[in-house]
Amino acid sequence: MNLQKLSPWNWFKSERGDAEAPIPVEPRQGELTPFAGLHQELDRWMNDVMRQFGMPALESRFGEMPSLLRPRLDIAERDDEYVISVEVPGVEEKDIKLTLDDNRLIVEGEKRQESSTQEDRYQRIERSYGSFRRVLDLPADAQREEIQASFVHGILKIRVPRSGEVRSNRREIPIQ
User: I need a labelling partner for 98 at 20 to 30 A (CA). Which of 12, 48, 70, 74 fits?
Assistant: First the structure.
């Protein structure tokens, strides 16, 4: 069952474009067992199932966690606007870039590692550093010229006003 069909608008069409393509199963080099291909196929299948439920994949084609630096977001629909809240803890406002490319809203940024001295000997590092990118496809009733963004305490809040034309096509159907 494809849960994307249940949502009123697929905000993530562009972001998941590459992820929907099937990944061919290739035998690992040096593998002698006939079950290696089956194991890889099961891994690919599990990643597809997890992706359908909006969960991060176990591993990408390159063996790393693809959503490690992927900020989580909430999208709220109101009568007059959409409100998108993006969690970017540990990222400074100057390291975030918000752009509009046709009907795509692109949030990019980088979480920078603090400088360390030669005296530091880490036993464990759990924080992630690097670049991130989220691509959101805007619905037809979004007023692209009026988009506003603010950044407070690690939360990027994007307000996308809605036009009344498309929204007027929505009506409630009484239940008999």
Answer: 48
